[in-house]
Write a structure and sequence with these properties.
2 helices; flat; alpha+beta; single chain; two-stranded antiparallel sheet; 4 strands
Amino acid sequence: MRAYADWRRHAPTVSSILHNHDIDPVFVPSYQYGRSGAGHGSIKNSVDMHLCVDAMRVLYRYPTSTPSC
């Protein structure tokens, strides 16, 4: 199992807690767009792209033998 986040924003103990529960923390950086300065603009990360790539990797490794339609 994986947990996707910008782990710089969390306490270092979170990573060890996740590992204790067999959850792999996946670092996904977040970026702030818009006006310059702290606390302004919207925050965007690439979690959706990482999830898509991981899903494609699973589908490639474990193809199903029956059609889904």
